[in-house]
Amino acid sequence: MRGSIVGQVQALYRLSGIAQIGHSKHRAKELARSSGAKTWHEIGKRLGIYSYSTADAYRDVWKQLLSYAKSNFGVKDIEKLNSEIVHGFLHSKIEQGVSKKTFQQYAAAIEKLEVALNMYSERFNRRNTYNFGLSSVRTYAKEIYAGEQTPSRAYESPTELIGALKEPVHQLVASIQYEGGARLER
Fold this sequence. Notes:
By secondary structure, the chain is mainly α. The chain has helices at 5-16, 25-34, 40-44, 52-73, 83-96, 100-123, 135-144, 158-164, 168-180. The chain folds into two domains: 5-144, DNA polymerase, domain 1, CATH 1.10.150; 153-186, no CATH class.
């Protein structure tokens, strides 16, 4: 594929068919199961991207990967990515000290890139097959992150916290958030 890193990532996202925003993810999971997918991993390999925020996050990782490939391997074409490049990229992220959760997001984004590349190849009869074989890198990461605990972000005593607020309107809003299960998206 030709073009800048951003251009290639955008073209792959648009042309591969991976973008499924506005379609039912639930229905896609049902179809994957009915066509033989048994594990969550098998189901995920048959799904597209159904959320704008996920699409943005994944495309950002794809851009970082392609930039890494260009800088370290001289590979400028997203269709020429291979296991060696992908493994090197993920190992570099571990060495940089990214958190376990961040590493998992990188790995998920790269697995979805693999799906997008296979869809693109099939759609445009490119005769390429992509399998980055992330299991060995995931095993290595599991060992590295074995002792890392993901801290809970939940308040220990939410009702006491709500009661300590001075303004009644703040108490009302906090109660609605707590009882309604509101979450903050960054």
